[in-house]
Amino acid sequence: MMTSHILTYLVYTYLRVAFANDIFEKCNNTRPFNSTIGTCLRQSTVAKCLNDNFSTYEDVKRCQNNRCIKCSNLGLSCIPDKYILKSPFLDEKACGLDLSQNLIDALPDYAFKDTSNLSFLYIRVLYLNENRLRWISSHTFDGLSHLEYLNLTENCLEWKDSFQTGVFMPLEAIEVINFKRNKFFDFIDLDNEFHYMTNLSQLYINPYNASGNFTLGPGFRRLTKLLRISFSGLSQNDCSVNTITQNMFTNTLNVLELSLRECNITDIDEQALLPLNNTVADLDLSYNKELSFTGMNKALKGLRYSQALKRLRANMIYSNLELGIEFKEEHLENIKTLQNIETLNIDLNKIEIFNKKVFEPESQWPTSLKNLTLAGNRLTAGKYMNSVFMAEHIIRLDISRQHLDYDPFANYGRMDKQTSLYNRHNIMYTNISNHEFLELNLNTIDWWSVFKTSPTTFSLTCECDNMLSKKVMCLPKQIETIKWRQSFIYSAIPPAVICGASQLKHLYMSFNLFHTWQGPVLGLSNLELLDLSDNYCKNLTKYFFLGFPNLLVLNISGNMLGRSFNPFKNDDAHDLFANLQHIRTIDMSSLKIVDLSQSLFRDMTYLEKLNLSNNYITTWTTDLRSPCLYHLDVSGNKLSTLPENLTTYLENLTRSACNKGRNVTLVLGNNPLVCSCKQLPFWKWLNVGKVQVHGKSTDFCTLNGNPFPLSSMADYRRVLLALKDICKDRYWVSWVIGASSGMFGILMTICVTIALYKNRWKLRYMYYNRKRRHTHQGFECLFSNDAMISYAKDRASFIKNKVVPALENIHQLKLWVADRDSMPGASVAENIVHAIYSSRKTVLLVDEKYLNSSWCVYDLNMARQESVESNRNLIIVVMMERIPSMKLPLNIMRMLRNEIVLEYPENEQYLDAFWTNLALEINK
Ligand SMILES: *[C@@H]1O[C@H](CO)[C@@H](O)[C@H](O)[C@H]1NC(C)=O
Ligand SMILES: *[C@@H]1O[C@H](CO)[C@@H](O)[C@H](O)[C@H]1NC(C)=O
Ligand SMILES: *[C@@H]1O[C@H](CO)[C@@H](O)[C@H](O)[C@H]1NC(C)=O
Ligand SMILES: *[C@@H]1O[C@H](CO)[C@@H](O)[C@H](O)[C@H]1NC(C)=O
Ligand SMILES: *[C@@H]1O[C@H](CO)[C@@H](O)[C@H](O)[C@H]1NC(C)=O
Ligand SMILES: *[C@@H]1O[C@H](CO)[C@@H](O)[C@H](O)[C@H]1NC(C)=O
Ligand SMILES: *[C@@H]1O[C@H](CO)[C@@H](O)[C@H](O)[C@H]1NC(C)=O
């Protein structure tokens, strides 16, 4: 694990560095260059451009009419002097022009004056990014008095050589100008050129010289609308300035947003940000890996007691190669004075531990702070955890991605040693004294009977204090959201008490390793959203959700809960969602669910969305009761059809009062739907129902042995028509079976009975196999088993100890064995037919007992029927003992003549050869 992290990091770093070195390589221009006009004269270039509405561009709002021209990536080396459009503008007035990703290296005077067919007078948006510009003439932008947005990123411009004097003078309306990824070695005289742009509100520019003079000169005082300055580049190394000096921002007094992100800054002068004290609301110091918390604190000196600053970003201000950090109270020295700070991001800083003084005796976090993110640090357990609850104003906390090996519930081990003192059940009431329940062993309470007698006892509230916080997990009392994802927490969730979290509404704990969810967890009774997805959980008890009676959204997808939810394997499967009666949305996708209890969702009368996609459900067995459901996802299962009770329920939902104004949708794609007569009602419903059914374009069903596409409603209709046609005959068969006992008089009955008796195996076979019919040629790979083994009941241990080890382990065959592989719930008859049908061969282990067992004879006859119907040689008879031929029934005699017959050797030494032969026959 560790090595892969390091590797990823190294590769990533290498790529970034390699990429960064490339940025200016395109600027090595070997063509002769005339510094007045660039490399070519204007009057030779004709560009075939596209009409575009710039809808993919960020600044589309500036050009709402469709008068935009896109000439990007045409290999142009000059500004065109004629633009050819597919559909010319009637009024000839362009609003946007995109010349990005060309080879233009110079902008001559009057580059955007009107051409013969277009007027650029009203142009508002101009893209020149990703060219090779190294020269802009004085009068280049003349006439562009309405230009609001200019993108010059990724060119070869150098300050100040590439800019002739007065070039920005015409841009009186410009609001956004972007110079990222050009070479500004300093900002000397920048103000003398920029001060004309009095409407400028956003300036993007990268200082590109670790020790340059980047003071924004007095001319900037005229840019009173300048609200955002961003020095950050598009990637690492674009911005480089080691020190932010005292005077840098003395002339930009209205800036609200300042980004100094990823600039290799090592030092920010104490006074540097002082001029922004009254305005700057959003400050980004992230990714200056040498800055450190000490440097951050120094920088904030100028903003002490600021009422303006609302958000401070200081992610990754330590190098990844450094030792872990102890976060100390002095790091908050200036932050704690900030009057209105709401969000603080200190992610990726290698914080290992907090000094206790950060929380105690008084919390050092500013009281206005509501959002705190500490993601991607390395927090480890420490004494500070007992006082975290002191940071009581924090509302949203993100401590994801810690990669720590720490069990948050380890604390509760202490309660196990325990002597249970008080009346167990009393203690659950809300007014318990805080210390009382600590004496209890939470593990030994009979939670189910507590719940049965009084479900409300699961809402526990308790106040944190210094004593209590040493014993149970205590959270800040206003906390509403906690994200604690991707931290590799390997633990069970035992019965637990969490104090102070009565406001907690959203809890995200996905991508950890909570392997067993035992619960209940008390103290989170107001929780509305719980995300426990992707935890590799294998074990869920019926107590787990008892403590979350107000849950609205639950995501448990990506766990391994198939067994817990399977009513045949877990007696508690019916009650797993007890106490979730308010739930609105459940995501149970990818849980490896095979079967669901019928009553699992019985109490959920508000359920709106249920996702059961990507499980192994073959038959829909569960009941939904909510009248408000409007989204059901069962895609990616193994459903061959949906039963009528479900389709009726869904159809009723479209008329339900809660669903007024919204569509009811069923996502059905990626299921092996069967198109056969038994499913006719289902296909009718798909065609006439009001529920919106979403399939996948790759869906198909098998109809008459051929794949039939199911990619649209029209396909559904075609299936229906085809089925109606085919099923006329089939009706007859079922009618024959159904009608044999009457109605048509005795004569008819006798005739039919005789016919039925004669054909009884064929009819039974057809009856059970009715939904699985297909012809077998070319479908060999579809069999899920190599062989079905048919044997007399008393041979079970022989099968287990001899046959399975010999054929499965040594010869690598996949067997179907009734005692092991029967589908629960299906009848014996259905199981047998299914087994024969899905196995390439059927091996009959015949002895006298076998011949006397009715199910064995059933196996035998069904196998014969399948062999005839599908025209395959599938029967292999193994005579387990010598049976006198007079004892053999006639049909067996006949079969022994036609089918492959092996004899089980009496002598041990021939056993190996026998198994090899049998395996060969099966593989044939
Ligand atoms: C571009 O020029 C720089 C020096 O200015 C040189 O180091 C680099 O190798 C050149 N790149 C190419 C592709 O010529
Ligand atoms: C550059 O082009 C201008 C205009 O065509 C011309 O007058 C001047 O001589 C050229 N300069 C060079 C160095 O070629
Ligand atoms: C300008 O062009 C660059 C690409 O060079 C692009 O990343 C950026 O989003 C564009 N717009 C703005 C507002 O910077
Ligand atoms: C940086 O340039 C400004 C004028 O743009 C000047 O006032 C200042 O003294 C310079 N600083 C240094 C350290 O040279
Ligand atoms: C960052 O600044 C240091 C000097 O403080 C310099 O040695 C280093 O090369 C710079 N790194 C980058 C990527 O510019
Ligand atoms: C910042 O401004 C506030 C008023 O908004 C003022 O109280 C405080 O002293 C100023 N901070 C500094 C460092 O001047
Ligand atoms: C806190 O973060 C949330 C979600 O990231 C955001 O929606 C909200 O605006 C932030 N609140 C404040 C007060 O900054």
What does this structure look like?
The structure is a single chain. This protein has a 24-stranded mixed beta sheet, with no helix packed on it. Strands 42-41-43-44-45 form a five-stranded parallel beta sheet, sandwiched between helices. Strands 24-27-30 form a three-stranded parallel beta sheet, with no helix packed on it. The longest helix has 27 residues, at 713-739. By secondary structure, the protein is an alpha/beta fold. The chain contains 17 helices and 45 strands. The model is unreliable at 6-21, 410-435, 732-749 and 770-781 (pLDDT under 50). One 2-acetamido-2-deoxy-beta-D-glucopyranose is lined by residues 58, 129-130, 151, 153-154, 178, 204. One 2-acetamido-2-deoxy-beta-D-glucopyranose is lined by residues 210, 237, 240, 242, 264, 266.
